[in-house]
Amino acid sequence: MYQYIPYIILIVVAIILCVVAYIKMRFRFWTLQPVFHVYDFQYYLFPPGIIDHDLPEKNKYCNFNAIETVKYDAVSEYSINKFVRFIKANYLQNKGNCYVPKKNNIMAYFEGHSAASFFSFYYEDELLVSLKKGTNVPSKKLIGVMTTRPLSVTINSANHSNKKDASFDVYYVDHLCVDKMYRKKGIAPEIIQTHHYNQRHHNRQIAVSLFKREDELTGIVPLCVYNTYGFDMFGWNKPLDLIPQLTLVECGKSNIHHLFDFMGENSGSKFDICIQSEISNIMELIRSRNIYIYMLIKDGEVKSAYFYRKTCTFIREKCEALCCFASMNCFSKKETDIFIHGYKVALWKICEQAGFKFAVVEEMSDNYLIADALKMRTKPLFVSPTAYFFYNFAYHTFQPNKTFILH
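That's the Glycylpeptide N-tetradecanoyltransferase sequence above. Prediction below.
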């Protein structure tokens, strides 16, 4: 038996080397980035937090000639309108899903932040023909975009032995999109690298970024991995009214403090990591009807909260999806059915008001209880593996039911 141990070790090492080689070839750009690669074995034992404290240097992926990075408050109205048209034409347009946002469905996410948000535009020079003069007119064609906005991260040490509290800000990456005719030409890596370089030099207080990825994952150890479920609501019946001791209240300007009191009292003990936007930004998202937040109150005390997002994504004609992206349950285990029923009543209220006909549930925070309950009665139309991962920050992966993200 013992004589085979060296051979077993050699085989294991060979397999590891093959996996590393495959990842480096398959995801060449990401192997050069300051992320927690699956083969960074030292990070599993000693996660450093921020990987690169120094400002990034120029490399072959930086393209300062074609890419312009601008603070949100300095982006012209013309550029914003062009950005919105570009996203509508190129972002998530396929047979299964169609992303159709209006201007305020995008721009509201950049309002109410104390730190700057950033837009990057990738332009290609082109010549247009003037019909009046018959001459060529130089112009710039937009072929790629990316945005980032600030969020706050808190890692709660109470649930991690021998770990200190960590609290820091990150930039959430969104709207990374390339013109459909220009994909697989190395443009996205250039946008990411150039945006990161410019952002770090413009705002030296925030060194970390946060990405969200669906379906294909990229050889990076994720912050959190979970499933996103989609349920067709056709044939669903209106849920029964809540019992008299329970009250479902929509969050707004006059009562938002009750929500944050509830979250402040319970999030640290319930979740290992909490990521959220500023209250002023959340208020803007509520005001613009991009997110809906409901509290379930029992005997005058907030016991649970549900967070829904207008996705602007149509599964089919006139069938827009409403996503429950987070929830917080402080009912006892025996009262789980009350928590789930609260989700259904809130969902129905929103759908009656805004006409949503498709329910999406991201299986993180306490949403796993909701997803499990829905799957017992309705087969999901789709199940999509989803992950968040840090850029320039290495830490252990968190369980989805111990992860709370609000933005």
